[in-house]
Fold each of these.
Amino acid sequence: MRRQGVVMLLAVARALRPVARSTRPKLRPKSTVAEAESRFITGHPDCNVTPYIANLVGRDLHKKSAHPLGIIKDRIEAYFEGLETSYDVFDGEDPVVTTTQCFDDLNIPPEHPGRSKSDTYYLTDTELLRTHTSAHQSQHLRQGHEAFLCTGDVYRRDEIDASHFPAFHQMEGVKLFSEAEMNGRTDFSDKEAWLASPECDIVGKDLKATLEGLIKYVFDDPDLQTRWRDDYFPFTEPSFELDVFYQDEWLEVLGCGVIHADVLDRCGLASRRGWAFGLGLERLAMVLFAIPDIRLFWTDDERFHKQFKEGTVSTFKPYSKYPPVFKDIAFWCPESYVENDFNELARSIGGELIERVENIDTFTNPKTGKTSNCYRITYRSMDRSLTDVEINALQDSLRDEAASALSVELR
Ligand code: FA5
Ligand code: MG
């Protein structure tokens, strides 16, 4: 079912591209599309990369020194450069990785939802667009790097709102501790004993102190509110998450933890311990530059780009807030229904004109057991006013394609 759905979705997205593109004049030049399609849209039955996503790969926003993502990356790297430990710096790994790199090396079990096709963009059954920069941890550890930073674009089929985008950027950080720092300890075979040990505590405390130092360095703002939360990742233990308060909400900016014994074992490093973190560059940049919507990072609009300079943190001045257009769509769902498939369809049809997809009502009929969902789509351009005609056309396409590609029953 799913497989067929994805193939159909792809066909739909392809067929619709001219419509979507004509409403997005500021996207990439056409020539890169064909190039991207051949590599990422493989024709493999498991491929669920859409032209919209393929078109985002390779923009390398994090390497542009006058782009907010490049500016914040440089700033974070500068902080680490000032520390005692010397970090090797990477930012050019291929975003196409294997399931081994992205999941198996990291203890992520086959049934983990993050591996499913509703969450991840696959090129084939074994190749995918990395969902996190942790996909490169093990390779660098095996190559003998003991402390490193690694930045890149990552891809996820995810919810749609002002702080979530299907393509975003992460920076990974890893640090191994020396034998001396571990009080001479090299035998970590008793797992419970390790987790309860003062050495494990040393690693966790160093991790938090390093990241708190980073936030202080990057923001230089005594009023910035942050909080630590316990988290879970299969590849760290214990695991934590850091939130920053922004626009009246706690915004999750990074996940981190003490590297899991199994991950190190697989790299031939059973006698070593260390920490790792993965931070979302957009999230930090939104706070630092006061950028209200994650889609802005992808714009080609000069009014955005002329506001930023290499090495300089400045407050973004919205050139204008164009009015939103709200459209609701409600339908009965088939049993196979997955919300991310609808999100993906919306993105394929409306592109960056869609600011938010919000489930505003779910209802299950007690007699039939059938479930209905109602979504509110917020259309808003970052660059201009939208016309009724174009939004109605997009919404009509979304309705038609939801009915045919996702087999929902429109209400
Ligand atoms: C991870 O991706 C882990 N690999 C992080 C990690 C690395 C943990 C090393 C432990 C050790 P998570 O899925 O929470 O974790 O994502 C990390 C960060 O990416 C989030 O905190 C958030 O800042 C950012 N992020 C996640 N999803 C999105 C999205 N759709 N759009 C923008 N940013 C996102
Ligand atoms: Mg998280």
Note: The chain has a mean pLDDT of 91.
Amino acid sequence: MPDVNPAPTTAAAELDAIIVGAGFSGLYQLLCLRDRLGMKATVLEAGAGVGGTWYWNRYPGARCDSESHSYNYTFSKELFEAWEWSERYPQQPEILRYLNHVADRFDLRRDIRLNTAVVAARFDAATNRWLVTTAGGETLTAQFLITAVGCLSTANVPNIPGLEGFAGAWYHTGQWPHEGVDFAGKRVGLVGTGSTGIQAAPVIAETAAHLTVFQRTANYSVPAHNAPLSAEFKQWVKANHAEIRRVMQSTPNGHPFVIADRSVWDVTPAEREALYEAAWAKGGLQFRATFRDLLVDKAANDTAAEFLKAKIRQIVQDPATAAKLADIDHPYAAKRPPIDDDYFATFNRPNVTLVDVRAAPIQRISPAGIVTAAGEVPLDIIVFATGFDAMTGPLLRLGIEGEGGRKLADAWAAGPRNTLGVQVAGFPNLFTVTGPGSPSVLCNMPVAIEQHVEWITACIARMRAKGLTRVETTEAAMDAWVAQVNAAASATLLPQAQHSWYLGANVPGKPRVFMPYAGGMAHFRRICDEVAAKDYEGFAFSA
Ligand code: NA7
């Protein structure tokens, strides 16, 4: 993949749109604006290659937990049929190859500027244009600014005293060195047991001399049962583009499986156990689809939680370690539910130890290792699988200032507020692909991305057709949408997980607001379609 910037096809001053980020969202947004609307658009990308999340997250074991045939664009039948995934869940290098294939196939690279981080963006009301400043000091202007920065792209490195004096090496999983890390013969500390830590631990344990996992919040996990895809399945995928797309667009979470239309209470305890066993044997995120009420009825959820905790106690041989791993304080799937390849069995290895940092918190990092209230753990390498300043972090670090110089950081001081996750009052001509207030991370991301990008494209097409130059959501629409986002979250068990990044709880000082829209992707699509059908109700246009 080329790591150099091609000469841009459009002079900066003539741009219609600047898109920030060359991941799944940015690539498709460029294609839509340039090739469907004939606009002059440029993507600014901080990384040295395209791929977004999959460019940065190269840690050991990095893999998507959406099934591969659903983790791709569906807008092009030809693209869908041309690409063939090798495993049930795609590994990071394969996803990166896919996104590079997309960039080449649609000739997108000529309008992508790599190594170009955006550090400021200001709306100029006199011209109705955005002035975008890069880290290199260049300023570009465009009528529209579209952020395609992803939800999980701002690494959260915990502010633990002493890190700068650590004598070994440390890494955050979201900023992994491209040359990889050699764990052979090393004492490795892994901080964090979210999806990332749970993926990385078994792989690191294979080569490290010793792996110590520092767990603050115990987590559920369901086996992924990853495996190579059979020729027969690959053929079925190619032959069923329309049906796969239809199912993904009809489900609340954008996955290619349907949530069973039965309650936990419709079956006997023995039948329930058998259904959970079957779901466990099948593996993956489909476990959530066993019953329709797992995320809305705490007592129903408890039955799944107890099943999963019992599995941990069965797998993990040391009872004290099993007890710590199974001491889970939140409903199943109220935090992002990880799936794994032998995570719990990893604790049966002689070279793996679990440290409970809820019971004995990390106090500091010494030159020799991590010091908890229970003592020092000597380490050569620390891996922070500590997640991200999710959803708002990637937007706020762009230094966005709307009309009258109002900072997005100030507008969102008490938490994110917008309409349909896509526009903020006071920030005309700014669109945020999969912003907070949209389903995004509660959905299979490519499905959410295609919907948001297509909605934005249709809105801009309407403006161009009518000769309009400015669009801005209204305060009233924003108030109404924020109320809907809050109501959707309150109708579920999701806000009950106190330590969840959905709530911003993982970043000290961040406002605790449930950020994604929990009303389901299919419902969200209907709402967005209705708004468009009512001539973009809640959005004000002018020439
Ligand atoms: P997550 O899900 O935010 O997990 C981060 C983990 O790191 C979680 O276990 C945290 O514990 C832990 N953490 C964070 N800060 C600390 C400190 N200071 N000390 C100890 N432990 C800490 O991030 P992931 O990268 O695993 O996953 C992010 C998403 O990527 C995932 O959900 C998928 O959507 C893809 P906590 O739970 O906060 O107590």
Note: The longest strand covers residues 118-124.
